């Protein structure tokens, strides 16, 4: 059974994180992704750690792609991009707004050679508005979307989320936009232009905070690991670390008190009689719970929580996560062979399915590994490609035999 996007070509004009993540998942879904890089290469090719001269971080983010190197500022380079676009189904880009128009590879230019193209743009703040020309990175978007002020511990400095949240949110938002546009094209026959930004994509994930602000004027502030609506629902200190507990509903709270910590008298305490009261008295609740939990290690409490059916788990360091038997069973650490790095690990597929939906088919490409192959596929003669290589319009890297 073929993968759902098999036979479709994506022209990937993106770099760093948001765009490459979106393109990677399209590749996982079966699309042929042609990643266009400048002669300098995607910025993340320089990221450490390097193994045999190749960035491990780049390799993890750019599987299931081909790489071609094109000087897009040259007329011949622009012509090459247009010829590839004419045989593509999807174009994605994350240049600063206005750049693709200057290069002559914007939506209107590409639509002339491929009328039903689906063209997606990602940027810091969107293509319009007061900040439409402003560049942006994940950290800027986290700050301006309010996320940094609601992350961290009360009274502390603003904190960014530990991962590039707005970048990934932008990649995921663009991904579902592209898939929606593809469904629309299948039904109605026409492509379309779509765009989103790091700011909007991250802001769109603040659902409950939005509701609380407009429903009650509440400004979300940093709460550490606590939930703003539920308690106990946080990480608590144990004898040797931390354990997360989600026992906010009245039924789970009763089971937690009686079967996990053996403190049925807490059920009679008026401060904790209902979830809103437990949220209001979260400091006192934490002090009581930790007075019990710090007497035993995390593993003890996880076993008790599991036995009682109360959601809970250990707070891992990242190396512990990647070595967890469940994570390994679910194949989230996947072995692959890279042409220069050699045997390496890549993140596994988070979607499991009964049919063929996603697949890790090939490792990340070398810089310009597929330049000659792709150009010849779109009609360039071998001699023409050689001439472009000689003039520096395109570049290639050959895989050692």
UniProtKB/TrEMBL annotation:
The keyword Cytoplasm does not apply. One of its GO terms (molecular function) is CoA-transferase activity. InterPro entries: CoA-transferase_III_domain, CoA-Trfase_fam_III, CoA-Trfase_III_dom3_sf, CoA-Trfase_III_dom_1_sf. Coiled coil: none annotated. Keywords: Transferase. It holds the Pfam family CoA_transf_3. This is CoA transferase. The lineage of its organism: Bacteria, Pseudomonadati, Pseudomonadota, Betaproteobacteria, Burkholderiales.
